[in-house]
Amino acid sequence: MTDNDPLHAIDTMSEECGVFGVYGHPEAANLTYLGLYALQHRGQEASGILTYDGKAFHHERNRGRVADIFSESCLNRLKGHAAIGHNRYSTTGGNKLENVQPIVVNYALGTLGMVHNGNLINGNFLRDELEAYGAIFQSSMDSEVIVHLIAHSKRRHVAERVIESLGRIRGAYCLLFLTEEGLIGARDPYGVRPLSLGKIKGGGYVLASETCTFDLIEAEFVRDIEPGEIVQIDEKGVSSFKPFPKVAPAQCVFEYVYFSRPDSNLFGKNVYAVRKRMGRELLKESQVEADMVIPVPDSGVPAALGYAEASLIPYDTALIRNHYVGRTFIEPQQSIRHFGVKIKLNAIRELIEGKRVIVVDDSLVRGTTARKIVKMIRTAGAKEIHVRISSPPIVSPCFYGIDTPTRNELVASTHNVEEIRKYITADSLAYLSTEGMFRAVYNNSSEYENKHFCTACFSEDYPIPFTGEERVQLGLFEDQALPN
Amino acid sequence: MTDNDPLHAIDTMSEECGVFGVYGHPEAANLTYLGLYALQHRGQEASGILTYDGKAFHHERNRGRVADIFSESCLNRLKGHAAIGHNRYSTTGGNKLENVQPIVVNYALGTLGMVHNGNLINGNFLRDELEAYGAIFQSSMDSEVIVHLIAHSKRRHVAERVIESLGRIRGAYCLLFLTEEGLIGARDPYGVRPLSLGKIKGGGYVLASETCTFDLIEAEFVRDIEPGEIVQIDEKGVSSFKPFPKVAPAQCVFEYVYFSRPDSNLFGKNVYAVRKRMGRELLKESQVEADMVIPVPDSGVPAALGYAEASLIPYDTALIRNHYVGRTFIEPQQSIRHFGVKIKLNAIRELIEGKRVIVVDDSLVRGTTARKIVKMIRTAGAKEIHVRISSPPIVSPCFYGIDTPTRNELVASTHNVEEIRKYITADSLAYLSTEGMFRAVYNNSSEYENKHFCTACFSEDYPIPFTGEERVQLGLFEDQALPN
Amino acid sequence: MTDNDPLHAIDTMSEECGVFGVYGHPEAANLTYLGLYALQHRGQEASGILTYDGKAFHHERNRGRVADIFSESCLNRLKGHAAIGHNRYSTTGGNKLENVQPIVVNYALGTLGMVHNGNLINGNFLRDELEAYGAIFQSSMDSEVIVHLIAHSKRRHVAERVIESLGRIRGAYCLLFLTEEGLIGARDPYGVRPLSLGKIKGGGYVLASETCTFDLIEAEFVRDIEPGEIVQIDEKGVSSFKPFPKVAPAQCVFEYVYFSRPDSNLFGKNVYAVRKRMGRELLKESQVEADMVIPVPDSGVPAALGYAEASLIPYDTALIRNHYVGRTFIEPQQSIRHFGVKIKLNAIRELIEGKRVIVVDDSLVRGTTARKIVKMIRTAGAKEIHVRISSPPIVSPCFYGIDTPTRNELVASTHNVEEIRKYITADSLAYLSTEGMFRAVYNNSSEYENKHFCTACFSEDYPIPFTGEERVQLGLFEDQALPN
Amino acid sequence: MTDNDPLHAIDTMSEECGVFGVYGHPEAANLTYLGLYALQHRGQEASGILTYDGKAFHHERNRGRVADIFSESCLNRLKGHAAIGHNRYSTTGGNKLENVQPIVVNYALGTLGMVHNGNLINGNFLRDELEAYGAIFQSSMDSEVIVHLIAHSKRRHVAERVIESLGRIRGAYCLLFLTEEGLIGARDPYGVRPLSLGKIKGGGYVLASETCTFDLIEAEFVRDIEPGEIVQIDEKGVSSFKPFPKVAPAQCVFEYVYFSRPDSNLFGKNVYAVRKRMGRELLKESQVEADMVIPVPDSGVPAALGYAEASLIPYDTALIRNHYVGRTFIEPQQSIRHFGVKIKLNAIRELIEGKRVIVVDDSLVRGTTARKIVKMIRTAGAKEIHVRISSPPIVSPCFYGIDTPTRNELVASTHNVEEIRKYITADSLAYLSTEGMFRAVYNNSSEYENKHFCTACFSEDYPIPFTGEERVQLGLFEDQALPN
């Protein structure tokens, strides 16, 4: 874990998306560019920025990394005091340019831009209904449903139309809208994905998926947008609406485990600190005698440090990363095959040889990478290898905006811990318990009893109700006894 | 330090070059591609591979990163059982395609390819002489002088011509030559740059700047090529020549400090282990009370771990890197300026606030980056900031293949430690002593007395003699009392 | 004229668009690629192809020329037995990728692709109406209105929805639709733009803007689609519908003058033959003594040949084209300026010196190019220069799909022939009369009396009625006494 | 023929190269860019420009067309008052960047740039000799030999070294050299390739392969450089040297037939006028009754006009070109194959049907294209097809800088006229005789007796002597009784 580096992408829950918006700053596009840059770990497939300068909208989007997409001339074209931006991790629908956000449309009230982090549950149903009314769809993104609902609303103001439309959708979403009337931000009633509000030093406001962006653009953290809250930011400042009935929040705990950057503060806690405490709790639950603690870089670093610090076993970064791993690496196609993790990592024999080592990572999805890493450490001469995972076993896919493998590909869905240990050829394997995870999140505070998190990927306990038809579409069948 | 990551390139001695050669393996180009990939930290500006298939030579070279230059079809074109490759860090002569190695020429004996890591002292002098004899130069690289000397030799075999030609040059070099007669490797009599020999599991031999490449291609380390040794690898195996008078070796100690990858074994020692010991020695020399030890990622990690482990002060990676920092980042051009290090690093306030922190890095060149990092940590709330550098002050440029700033830009050349401390606004600053550095290298072994290293950048003690004219050309004047 | 070459684009009515569709051939995409290639003169800014293989639709589009856009792998992806394609000349809305056709949307009946040659009169009005019903627009093309009308229709079959929708639009259009139900072609009741039906030798049907495409793909001309006719081509063959009240046709006569390729047969006549007769009629109307007839290459060639042949004055191609003129030519920015036509044409002094020359071109729009050509011929030593234009003066813009300059830029809109002659510095200038033009079209046949053409650009006589509001939007005011 | 258009490249003697140089104009690079643009027909594979600004040389070269290679910023970098440029048609040695001219080298006297149009006979011999002296070759171009000879010379001035070096080479060449001492132009003693001197209106001189460039840059034709003449242009003006013994000139007559642009004046005659007279002579020699004369566009236009004018048979451009034919056209790979000429040309049935047609082209190399064109015209309904070629049969390859097919591919080398007629399926076929060709060149003037042309491709009469070894290398054997 740590910060969602290229390496980890081998075998993890994949990234989702990042959103960023600015209102009231003369360099809205530049700030958004920086914000997307700091959110690159939430999506590397494509990015886009939409700005509004009081008269016209300006739009740039493309496939690729933020730094490659936005040239200086490109940023200069993006004039305006208000902007929204998006980093996309391509999920279903493929990597077509049509699917790159912001979605920008012309409709009865003028122009509307939207970015979305999350996933709708009833998107297909609404799509069919809208098409029956004559709606035309350009993309395969379920996010497009939302702009159609807004376009079909008869309300006079965008914010009213947004509220009316969100009343019809179910699912996980953080949304930013840019219109002639200002910037609107919305977080679903369960608060699955994070969204924070900041005040920019030079004037204006920012809405972003993570607070690490505030440090970069010199904005001050104001507060998190609350679950179910809609804010409109315009010349009059920030207005807040809470139009929906209150439900029990279900914030994504996996943001702590892997997604968010360690320098972000999420749902009120610092991510690095939570992760380090996860390592400590892991030690409490599954101690083992050993000579050294090794993190899987960089995702396992904080938990490994927490584990090592509490256990007094020496910590060493004995797996070395190649910092120049890029997306374009071509595996030579002949006899030398299956580099897999070797192209990215190398184990230092001089440190490992003859040692009993504890290897710490944040999560274990398919198990294939863990198996390769164990093999690499064994080849470097380790006497014993104990794998420690600083989160519980992942048993079920996410339907709230994260690109997980199918249930069958999740090794913990079909195998118990001992079977997994054998598969990855470790001498021992232990996961952090759900209770341990929450102790780490709450740092043993009194909040612990009242935890408001979504743990569906660890527990199959999906907080947002499904209809029977949705269950079938999502591959969740009756006998799995899901809540209705 | 650690592994020469993009971040560190802000303010360090710049990288130099990496060389890699294979003889006797059917996929020589694929192995060379992997080798260059693992040596990317030694040069990111350009790369090239030359192969020989027994009948024809095949050549690909371009500006950019290894993974971007060599496509699958490109590697398929590079047929042959023998290959040489090069990663270039552009120094003088600019980033022209003409200057990308391998140098490949047609001459009296057929075709000759060459790669060079190092720098010649008497290149200009030889160039003038060769031009007087009618030689034509295509590039601005001093390496080109060597192939001209070989072309002008009257000997019958390439190896003889190489020996004759190397007898005329002075400077630092590891050279690989590919010809119809086989692969030739040469290391200068001082052994300034590293060159190791490996045996490939599937058959054949490899010569490489660093041993980390052997792990990736599954080759076994055989031995280092000795200072002044020339090896020819062909169908008959490996032949060795030592035609030059013996001199005291002067291996580059800065390879330990920063250049080489931590998973390489260099001059007989593991680099990571040496660096960690440097941290320990640093603690012995400049202890200070503090609450935490922070590495500058990733270059300061091993020394910081060594320092923390020995001092029992907690270690935390409280500076978080943006893993997606690329070469193409455009700094927005208006009011939000001077991101410098902020775009690459962020300090975690929750960890640092109110703490006395020790920040460890491997070296300090201009001081500008250290100043920014200290400021960032101060802004995050640190109470005291103590900077510890795990190598001595850099006071003089390198003329042996490393792209250093001019003497005036080296902050330690013109300022004492207290002045530098003030400049970087730290509460204290300490460097490792030269003695401490060598204690770390030799791990207090008996070899210590017999150290054979070049320390010119720390000591102005240049091991390879200069003529008066060369001294003038290089900006080294009499009153600096250099050895003649 | 002649064949719409790059040169002529300097100063003419700009191209419009080309459409091409195939049904019932296993290589529909390849045929469409060839068809678009042969129609490149009708639009060079962007192209796209949509295919249907019985199960899925495949879509490729991009800015640029046909041969640059469609690579072999790209054509291989475009599987299917049915296809539509489009060449775009960018008019209003700019050269954005969103505006590249085919338009492809998902709607209630499935997927719908559409290409459009022409221009709607009441597009803005319909757009406002559709937006009020909740429609979302992605592009700035008025063509998008048509697919929204179809999506909002409640009919069960696409063809019925197309008929219902076309009943609501006014303007010039040739449309092709590709859906799961087959290929549909439609031509507006005035028949402004051409659309022909062909039968492919290897099986299947083709619909295309021009018959020159049939020669290339070895299709046989069947017949022109009639004004107001809608055809559906599917497994059952070709069905024809004529659902609209009959109006007097108003086919674009400028297709004969300039747009269509000379090897096409248009509205029943061969274009080259018509143009050559225009040259003959021009001679009858404006004879002059001279030593040679010179065409402006290549647009003036057929008329110049017709003029020379009838006058017995020798014909010479004394203006030589640079065949390598591309779109990317950079005019050096300093003292050597204003190459204009010189970069594309050169006059042969040896032929021209001391001669009285007649220069023939097909039309004269702004007059700026004619002025430069006259100057070039004068510099080459001509004694007298007589300019002859094989069409009437252009006095009014086209609103039916052709990108004309504004009225003020049309030199004949604001100047009489003598004033234009002075401006272009010719010794004499004559245009072909409207009557002469139609004599050439009908070759003095009896059809002449019954001519069914749009001559609005020559006469301001717009055949499709405008509302008052449309007149204002189009810049056509009352005092210009336009038909209502 | 006419102007060496993309079409003709299907089946002709391929282009060679074009050279252009400027001295004494502040925008030397811009003028050279324009000159190369006007010489694009002489080579489309690659281009380069070298400039000198009194202090430094600036160099840009690349594969592709002139207009694609030189961007505005690129031209701005090419500072200086002196420049040389080159268009390359890739012959042997392939299309490697190393082979793109200007050749630029550093040698004893400083920097030397060179461009070459032509071909050396004794290049291989000199290359071996130079390598024996230690020379290193970077490219596979024989032109590189010349710069090595210059580098090996001991003379003090470049011009002296050039003269000494040219004394050692045999072959066809027009050479331009750019050095610190000025611009040097050289034409071989036989004067095979053309080179003309012009005076630029704004100051300075120009040397160019063709005079059509002078019209574009507003330079005045001064004179042709004479066979065997060397000129140096510098601050003192133009100096001329004729250091070599006089030989009978052997100017390439094929420049008149095909290579040069019709608006150039070559060896004292206008090319278009010569070509038109070739058509007239062709009529005299091979009259036939027919209804129309058709040129193969654009190469056959002037001769067809000459033929038609003298015969009083009507002339029509009944073969229509697609003006958008580019290099990148992908022939669809399946059932629709063998487009060949169809993608570039289309015959107008309305003109041709039932007619006896005479088709005129400038030359006939392999016969494959002529065969396709005859078939196309026959399919369009022609009753009789008479092919007339305005030059003699090509029986032997060129060794003087033109890329001809091998002897076996030259249809007239192995077949008589009647056999060729059958192959191309024409009703009759006639070539212009050598005598007729020269009557056209000299316009029946008294010069005719004294003709100084190379006709080797028509006659096997090679004017530059070969050694026996060269004859073997070139595939010219004894029994072919070549001059020694």
Provide a quick synopsis of the model:
The first copy, chain A, has 17 helices and 23 strands.
Q: Indicate the CATH class of the largest domain in chain A.
A: Alpha Beta
Rg of Cα set of chain A: 23 Å
Count of individual helical segments of chain A: 17
The structural class of chain A is alpha+beta
User: Oligomerization state of this entry?
Assistant: homotetramer
The fourth-level CATH homologous superfamily of the largest domain in chain A is Aminohydrolase, N-terminal nucleophile (Ntn) domain
Average predicted local confidence, pLDDT of chain A: 89
Strand order, main sheet of chain A: write it out.
Answer: 3-2-4-1-10-9-11
Largest sheet of chain A: 7 strands, antiparallel
- Mind telling me which CATH architecture of the largest domain in chain A this is? 4-Layer Sandwich
Name the biggest interface.
Answer: A-B, 71 and 72 residues
CATH topology of the largest domain in chain A: Glutamine Phosphoribosylpyrophosphate, subunit 1, domain 1
The tally of strands of chain A reads 23
**Which regions of chain A are unreliable across 5 or more consecutive residues at pLDDT < 50?**
1-11, 478-484
Helix content of chain A: 25-40%
Rounded to the nearest angstrom, the distance between the terminal CA atoms of chain A is: 33 Å
Question: Your description of this structure?
Answer:
4 copies of one chain form a homotetramer. By secondary structure, chain A is of the alpha+beta class. The first copy, chain A, has 2 domains: 8-266, Aminohydrolase, N-terminal nucleophile (Ntn) domain (Glutamine Phosphoribosylpyrophosphate, subunit 1, domain 1), CATH 3.60.20.10; 270-444, Rossmann fold (3-Layer(aba) Sandwich). Chain A is built from 17 helices and 23 strands. In chain A, the strands form 6 sheets. The first copy, chain A, has a 7-stranded antiparallel sheet with strand order 3-2-4-1-10-9-11. In chain A, a hairpin with a 2-residue loop joins strand 15 and strand 16 (269-270). The first copy, chain A, is globular. Residues 1-11 and 478-484 of chain A have low confidence and may be disordered. Chains in contact: A-B, A-C, B-D, C-D.
